[in-house]
Amino acid sequence: MYLKRALDAWNSLTLARQFLLAGGMVFLLAMFVIGNLVSRQIEEAVTRNSAASTALYVDSVIAPLLPDMQRAETLDDFVVRALDETLSQGALGRRLLSFKLWKRDGTILYAKDKNLVGRKFPPGDELSAAWNGQFVAKLDQLHGAESEAEQQSAEPLLEIYNPVLQPWSGDVVAVSEFYEIATDFKRDLEAAKLRSWFVVCGSALLIFAILSIIVFRGSRTIESQRRSLASRVGELSGLLEQNRHLRQRVQRASQRASAHNERYLRRVGAELHDGPAQLLAFASLRLESPNLLGSARKPPESAKEINLIKSSLDEAMDEIRNICNGLVLPKVETAKLPEVLRMAVDAHVRRTGSLVDLNITEPSLMLVPSEKICIYRFVQETLNNTYRHAPGARASVTQTVEDNRLVIAVTDLGSGFDVSDTRPEALGLAGLRERVESLGGEFCLKSSPQGTTVTMAIPVEEHATA
């Protein structure tokens, strides 16, 4: 649980912050390790080189004073006095705090502290290494019973074990142990170590800063691209969802339009059957009248029959023309929006003699033919409904543009009706709704005792009139 939370919290951080945390810890660890390694190497190298030069100097001064150490079990008084004088005066007297000369069995042959002469101590690691011909130097790392006096010193000491070699054979015949006062040496060593730490830390911080700048720039670019991609994905998702809804609406509208077209065709067939067909049938029956075919026909009765037949045929032709006028569109495909609206209004006024007001607020719209046909049918059908259901009521047609949508509203000042009582299968309103929604538009019907308003709105793009 805690590991998952930690991983979630880590993954929620930006790339730059992850680099600062992880990279910072790695750089600090690397800087600490490298700094310690370099510092230790400097300390060991400087200590060994300084001790080697001191040992070489001491050996060059002390070696001529020593007898044949392979044969001598002790040092005579002459050698002891010479060593005392040499180690207590001059440069060696100032530099060396103490001096010891060891035999192989761990016995001290000579020491500045006379209490140690002749005493035997178990050889330590440094002394054993010196008897094996190795040079040993250590700074402020005093231990062992033989160096109790040196451990009390407040000065930093450089402890040196130097093998004494026989000149002609090169064998180790004794080991000299001495302690150099290393005040200046330790100060210089600390300064060198401080400079090494400064170089290591400065280099690491500089590298980390350069990498941080690169990572921050990359992280900022990635974050910007991620936000842009997320925004585009969101927009695309919204568009896909909108397209899905529109496709479903178009599919439903197409299905309903097919059903309404079938009902519309049945209505046209019914109007032809109940109107012109009945009149033609009546005329056909009158043609078989005895007043026209019988031998006893009389001219006045024949003329009367002929007039009835002609009247019936003329009435049938008038009804057929009226039906055709409702089915056949004028040439609206090439007309502009104001012309389409005027053609629909003028046709209604000529046919019914009604009063219709036309208000056009935005003529500079370019529409495709399907949109023009939809607008013409909308105005035609709504004005016909007004004439049938609110005879004598003044009507108006208004065209506006709202939020990049073309809005056509047909209003009458009739007594209105209850919208909830409208039959779903009513051909006029249902057909208009399907026409408008098939273009991605919206259809709205509102009615009250003060009048009725039918509105259509379809998305369009505005263009300046050429």
Descriptive notes:
The chain is α+β, with helices and mostly antiparallel strands and 466 residues long. Among the domains are: 279-328; 330-466, Heat Shock Protein 90. The protein is built from 13 helices and ten strands. It has helices at 2-12, 15-62, 77-88, 90-95, 125-131, 148-151, 183-274, 276-287, 290-293, 299-327, 337-352, 369-389, 427-438; strands spanning 96-102, 108-111, 136-139, 157-165, 172-181, 356-360, 395-402, 405-412, 442-448, 451-459. The strands form two sheets. It has a five-stranded antiparallel sheet, sandwiched between helices. Strand 6, helix 12 (369-389) and strand 7 (395-402) form a beta-alpha-beta unit. Helix 8 (276-287) runs antiparallel to helix 10 (299-327) and helix 11 packs parallel to helix 12. The radius of gyration is 60 Å and the shape is rod-shaped. It starts with a helix and ends in a 7-residue tail after the last strand. 19% of the residues are buried.
CATH architecture of the domain at 330-466: 2-Layer Sandwich
> Could you name the ranges where pLDDT drops below 50 across 5 or more consecutive residues?
462-466
The helix tally amounts to: 13
Beta strands, count: 10
Strand order of the largest sheet: 2-1-5-4-3
CATH topology of the domain at 330-466: Heat Shock Protein 90
Radius of gyration: 60 Å
Distance between the termini: 70 Å
Apparent shape: rod-shaped
Q: Which series of helices and strands comes N to C?
A: HHHHEEHEHEEHHHHHEHEEHEE
Largest pleated sheet: 5 strands, antiparallel
CATH classification class of the domain at 330-466: Alpha Beta
Helical fraction equals 55-70%
Going by CATH, what is the homologous superfamily of the domain at 330-466? Histidine kinase-like ATPase, C-terminal domain
Mean pLDDT across all amino acids = 79
Question: What amount of the residues lies in strands?
Answer: 15-25%
Give me the secondary-structure category. alpha+beta
Protein name: histidine kinase
Transmembrane segments: 20-38, 196-216
GO cellular component, one term: membrane
GO molecular function, one term: phosphorelay sensor kinase activity
